[in-house]
Amino acid sequence: MKIKRALLSVSDKTGIVDLAKALHSSGIEIVSTGGTMKALQKAGIPVLYVSDVTGFPEIMDGRVKTLNPYIHGGILAVRDNPEHQKAMQEHSIIGIDMVVVNLYPFRETIARADVSLAEAIENIDIGGPAMIRAAAKNFKYVTVVVNPDHYSEIAAMVKKGEVAATFRMKLAQEAFKHTAEYDDCIQSYLDSKIEK
């Protein structure tokens, strides 16, 4: 499947500008969130703000920004299902063919000796894992990327026309592993804070 729209939202900005340049030069529309969007704009890359897609501002200190049917409908739509296509048309949902997300640095945050429970809690990513899992579930149609080490490989595939189906499945497996490890880190940390 040809990628037409990609959503980029990363805490670790390593390599994201180069990937975005490659996506843009291949004619892919880029949607992004706060910090990532600013980094891309600073590099002169055209980007569509996620709030312009959702019609709703980022709220609650950024806790709610991508949890929206315009995002998740765009990610989860089964492209060859007529009912899904009909719903997309009726609700003006545009497909999102690539999701590039890495998560709030929870492990790094809790590694600090002075971190408070409240600060740790604020570094639990919600929208990121939701988008990653949605994209990974729909890997038949959506490329999910959680590891910056894949950016140059992805850029090369996109330049040739598409990301291979077998590679999309590999990326989906890696994505589910990533969110599982992230959740395990959170539950382990919370367990350590519970008085036994």
TrEMBL record:
<dbReference type="InterPro" id="IPR011607">
    <property type="entry name" value="MGS-like_dom"/>
</dbReference>
<protein>
    <submittedName>
        <fullName>Phosphoribosylaminoimidazolecarboxamide formyltransferase/IMP cyclohydrolase</fullName>
        <ecNumber>2.1.2.3</ecNumber>
        <ecNumber>3.5.4.10</ecNumber>
    </submittedName>
</protein>
<dbReference type="InterPro" id="IPR036914">
    <property type="entry name" value="MGS-like_dom_sf"/>
</dbReference>
<dbReference type="Pfam" id="PF01808">
    <property type="entry name" value="AICARFT_IMPCHas"/>
</dbReference>
<dbReference type="GO" id="GO:0003937">
    <property type="term" value="F:IMP cyclohydrolase activity"/>
</dbReference>
<dbReference type="GO" id="GO:0004643">
    <property type="term" value="F:phosphoribosylaminoimidazolecarboxamide formyltransferase activity"/>
</dbReference>
<keyword id="KW-0808">Transferase</keyword>
<dbReference type="InterPro" id="IPR002695">
    <property type="entry name" value="PurH-like"/>
</dbReference>
<dbReference type="Pfam" id="PF02142">
    <property type="entry name" value="MGS"/>
</dbReference>
<keyword id="KW-0378">Hydrolase</keyword>
<feature type="domain" description="MGS-like">
    <location>
        <begin position="1"/>
        <end position="146"/>
    </location>
</feature>
